[in-house]
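Handout, page 2. Input:
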Amino acid sequence: MKSFGFWLESEDKPDIEPLSIDVLLNFNLWCEPSSGAGRDLDFGFKLSRAVDSEDAGGHGSYSLPKHVDAFVLYCPFSLDKKHVFDLYDVLISSQSRVLGAVFNEKCKVTSSDSKPYASVEFPGGSNDGFTLCKIANSISIEDAPDDVPGCFIRIALPGNLPDGALYFRFRIKGPGISSLVQKYDSKDSPFNSAFSRVEIVDFRFNDYRTLPDCANNHVEAKHSSFRLNTMQAHFLLMADSGVDVDSGVTLKEKRLLEDGLWDDYLKVGHSASESKRFGRHSAASDFSNLVAWHWKKGDLAPVDGYRMYLKLRIHVCNFITIVKYLFYLFVITVSFDVAEKPVVDFLSMLVSFVVRLFGGDCR
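Output:
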């Protein structure tokens, strides 16, 4: 799989002190083994001043839009704007507790209909507060150069955002996401009533090995108004509880998804017919038995990249093979039933003939 790419953009601003920026990355891959079309990929980006930074005004307030004009995500496959969904509204909903679940801490959200952002605070103090940004009207899709597959998702930063850390979260759908998961069936699977299917997740982010030069040049570019310091990545895979997951990376945690908590969140980007699968507290929901597998990696330099290789083993009941075997058994049974009387009559006639033949010789 080709790599995703991420970088920040800014015009040359030599009159301001450069800001050192840390980036928190959230990747959520919703992986339904039964339906490749049901796979979604959520991205979350938190931009904040580096913890050990003393630039751009010391330890006081700072304004990211003064230093950064936009952030860009390179996708290694083509997308339409209809395949990108801002998750702002569902995260700030008064009925939703998803934002607190994302950061594993109860949070307080303050928002206004007149402003395209919301203030998020964590009373427990385990996480620093930030501004959650509404980006639905700031997203644009640009085609990559002719010789490069994929596209660029560009999100502009409005200049009227509050000081401090900023957070963006959006979802990508479409056939390109399904290509993140490669399926491999055993060669003898057509003859087995049950077998193990292997699915490979090969996720790459800012990986210079598979990132096109045009994107890699942006990742490595230097800017006068800011510099990327470190990145911390959280990768979550949501898969059925019956799926075995192998990874060479140490697992941070795994848990069953909380019942009813994620229903509205999962509906984003799905049609009305698809959303029926996410009925609140529905035992028949496809997501009622999902396990979240969580991996974490910190202190990444932007040029280091991030890679996640996972092997999923799925136990499959091959109903087609079972039906074939039942059909063959039916055909054999019917054939024996149809052929039984002629064969018995023939054998009876043959025995009678032999008896008459040898019985006459004895007399």
